[in-house]
Write a structure and sequence with these properties.
heterodimer, A: Rossmann fold, 11 helices, 34% helix, B: Alpha-Beta Plaits, two-stranded antiparallel sheet, elongated
Amino acid sequence: MERREFMKRLCLGAAGGTLIAKGIKAQTETLKLLGSSFIPSGTGYDLVAVKGGEPEVMFDKAIAALGGMSQFVKSGQKVVLKPNIGWDVAPERAGNTNPQLVSHIIKRCLEAGAAEVCVFDNSCDNWVKTYKTSGIEEAVKSAGGKMFPANEERFFKTVNVQGKVLKTAAVHELILNSDVFINVPILKNHGSTLFTGSMKNLMGVVWDRRFWHRNNLHQCIADFPKFRKPDLNVVDAYRVMYRNGPRGLSMADVKLMKSMIVSRDIVAADAAAARLLGLDPNEITHIVMANNSKIGTMDLSKLSIQRINI
Amino acid sequence: MKVQPKLRIFRIIVAILSLALIILAFFDYEGKWSSSFFRSILFLQFVPSFLQFVHFPSIFATGFILVILLTFLFGRVYCSWICPLGILQDGLRKLKPHKRKRRNRYQFYKTNKWLKYSVLTLSFVSILFGSAFFLRFVDPYSLFGKLIYQLGSPVVIGANNLVFNILQYMGNYSLKPLPYPSFHLWAFVFSIGVLGILIFLVFWRGRVYCTEWCPVGTLLGVVSKFSIFKLQISENSCTSCGLCARNCKAGCIETKLKTIDFERCVGCFNCLSICTTQAIVFRRRREKTSENDLYQPDLQRRKILGLLIAATAGLGLKSAMAQTNAGAKALLPNPKPNPVTPPGSLSIEHFNNSCTACHLCISACPTKVLQPALFQYGLNGLFQPYLDFHKNFCNYDCVRCGEVCPTGAIVQLIPEDKKLIQIGRAHFLRENCVVYTEETACGACSEHCPTKAVHMVPYKAGLTIPEVNQNICVGCGACEYACPTIPNKAIYIAANPVHLKALPTEKSNEIIEEIPEEFPF
């Protein structure tokens, strides 16, 4: 081997690695063609609110009231679960969705015949640390689900949203090629949007959050569900950060509320969750905006609600 | 006496192990290994250990003394057994294309004493005048670090990501994709340059870098002059065949005179195993192999040694002075904004003095907020790490950089202490803020703030706007990173040239139970 040849190979080797990686990516992208499946409504309830139990028990009661897991997950379907895995804090700090709940939902999905259950979030803190510290990575793996990264732009694909402000967004490919989309936010106080629930949680399925922040944050949050509404929203209000959100300083910011709100209607779920936090949904701009553009209903008096005490 | 020819094999095994462990340290992206692992494998690295000893004398920083003792016993074995750059050069030599099946054709060359003693003196003077600047270009360990980070890690990360993609395609997510290191043109060019020069020198004459340039090699060379064990040629057995000289990568065997310039010998022991007549032996200095005394006093060398001892004494004096002055020294305002240095680096001054820019912290930093500087510190801090809040921000609970730093430039901290170190302070520019200019909600800065130093206060109808309490700000840069405004940020961190203490925030470990009696809807 000539010296020049050797140097050439050294450079080519490095470049080659990246190119091959990109080629494989392109192939997988052509495989996406699946939309959301048709889901018949099982019972008459628009929203179920549960309190007083452990996350697993409350979820089972709520799902039973909505007609059982089979209403949402069919045999062989691919399910994506989007909890809030935003911050590098322990479960007790209530900065992220309860790992017990995440693990339980995965088990129920698999029991209902799901082919696979994938979980991800575009974390705010370092994703590797956040996945670990939140306890969610371990919970997902032990329940038989798959933890997926969302740390690089290549996992996201630009789609048309056709919102008032948000015209396009780069959305995580799991949202694009899963059959069932279950949104599992945790209810928290938020410094600027006042509260974070189901719609705000969807900021973690896009790549560029900064665009939302500088272009009318509330409108972008309300616009996104026009592209894709979750098939089910499970609002975790077991531990609730009632101040200093969304990251919190310590457990002094957390209340044990042992509650849960489950609904197909993302706006209704957020309206009920806001009330649970002591807020008037009319004061939360993105709830009003989403209601006005018919994403869902914020008027809880018009909905049939099942209230369960354990 | 069949042990001596086997020294070569033993050397190769130890060298591969040393190199492998250091490479592993540079590729520990997930922080799997403990601080003590890093401390142990880098314990013997001469320059890092020496720098640490100068600033924080302790038993954990005595690796360089051990190396000097080792050299006093056996000569410069450090250069072939422990030094990663030395071992790398031996590896690079294997890439040289062979012509006509004749392996290793080295030859004796004359050494340039002025050059190497100048480099050594400059290294000392540089530290004496409060800068590790010069060392960043000559210290073999940190040169190796820069090479492995700038050139090696993209290849390793590429391979990792390739395997990740294949596994992902098969539905397996057990591997984690890794971000490529950010491209820094000059650091890259520098590393390519160093590698190029090394390959050229190694292909040409072997360990020229080690015998003619490396300050560690030169210093240990001086010590090796007094080594107890030395390689010696027994005149009676030697046939002057020249086989040893042709296999001496340090070019220090002169066949005609049957002498070994042991000051340059890098302790590879290839000559021991190659000699067919066993004329080369490794034995005590006092046992003369011929009527010639191998030890000849060299007056020039004595002068240099004297200079070195004086320089070391000066260093000790300087560190003693620095410790007494640290609190009282007021830093003049600097019109050029200072870069933010990692938590644990105490001050820019300390950091400039003791960091050799080996890039180990940069490769270990989980958020990749640590990036090599160009002129952010001025020329003095070339390639030193700084916190680049456009790349990311410093994780509140993370103390990784201090755990891996071998020179004491970044002091090891426990997370609870680190959370109160203020490396800089947040400054809010209302006129740049989305809430002010667009009158829409944002709060990305406050959202990311781990201490709520940046918090939201009521603004116009339904809106909240950031406000900063600098007393509890730690300067992690989360606010600056998250701020969405372009082209400039509405909130940024101004560095504390000397790190300060942040006030603690109210914390509790108790959760109030408050299950609602009735649903509020």
